[in-house]
UniProtKB/TrEMBL annotation:
This is Isoprenyl transferase. Belongs to the UPP synthase family. Z-FPP synthase subfamily. It comes from the Bacteria. Catalyzes the condensation of isopentenyl diphosphate (IPP) with allylic pyrophosphates generating different type of terpenoids. GO terms for biological process: polyprenol biosynthetic process. Homodimer. The active site is at D33, N81. One of its GO terms (cellular component) is plasma membrane. HAMAP family: ISPT. Its EC number is 2.5.1.-. The keyword Transferase applies. InterPro entries: UPP_synth-like, UPP_synth-like_sf.
Length: 253
């Protein structure tokens, strides 16, 4: 009788062999959900769940790179998460900062921190900015780390940035309003210059976006996985890619 581990390996190889390389999404967004519930399920402190979740990130990026994905956006901390217990938030911010520093120090991926860093403690924000700076010249896969991120906040920030830019150029509010286009706002988003996400994956069984990439995901395909983020496996990722490849993308048409 074959062991469960061997059967898993055979199934994983089958998924890899069947992957349509011509239909791999360029940009994958991932909502890393379920760390706290995973910790409760296994009877460990919440902070342990956050650490296990952070450890999973590098694995996901390797899987994405192997599949040919060009951009990955990881939602690591929402603006709503900042309203949790102060002790938990402090632990989580340190775990996130260490995870981002580890990604930067690997020299493998180009990082972009997206979110309202002014909402974070100065020391954490400085660590994140420094990690981003260390990885800017890396030619590898682009990795966005969404920290202190909210979709509505991003759109509001984009509009404010656009108004400041046009005001500095001497344009009146009336002139800006008369000429404002969708592309103008898109050019001021945190992800400016990148393709919109083709596929958005959410773990933990929750079937909602929660404000993730609200503007950019208008034509995205969604995949909801039952596994908590710390339990997310390569076969779960490959199933999401397979499901995406089998869909007929209409892009709003």
């Amino acid at each position: 009788m074959r062991s469960p581990e061997l059967l898993y390996q055979l199934y994983e190889r089958r998924l890899v062999a069947g992957l349509d390389r011509e239909r791999v999404p360029r940009h994958v967004g991932v909502i890393l959900d379920g760390n706290r519930r995973w910790a409760r399920a296994v009877g460990t402190p919440t902070v342990h769940g956050h650490r296990r979740g952070a450890d999973k990130i590098t694995e996901l990026l390797h899987w994405s790179e192997e599949a040919g994905v060009e951009v990955v956006t990881l939602w690591m901390l929402s603006t709503d998460n900042l309203k949790r217990d102060a002790g938990e938030v402090a632990d989580l911010l340190d775990i996130i900062a260490k995870a981002v520093e580890t990604l930067a120090d690997s020299g493998r991926w180009s990082l972009r921190v997206v979110g309202s860093l002014d909402l974070l403690p100065d020391a954490i924000a400085d660590r994140l900015r420094a990690a981003q700076a260390r990885s800017e010249s890396v030619p590898g896969m682009q990795v966005n780390v969404a920290i202190g991120y909210g979709g509505r906040d991003e759109i509001a920030d984009a509009v404010r940035s656009l108004l400041r830019e046009r005001g500095a150029a001497g344009q009146s509010l009336q002139d800006v309003a008369a000429a404002l286009s969708v592309d103008d706002i898109a050019d001021h988003l945190y992800t400016k210059g990148q393709p919109d996400p083709d596929l958005v994956i959410r773990t933990s069984g929750e079937q909602r976006l929660g404000g993730f990439l609200l503007w950019q995901s208008v034509h995205s395909e969604y995949y909801f996985c039952e596994a908590y983020w710390p339990d997310f496996r390569r076969v779960d990722f490959l199933r999401a890619l397979r499901d995406y490849a089998q869909r007929e993308r209409r892009l709003g048409r």
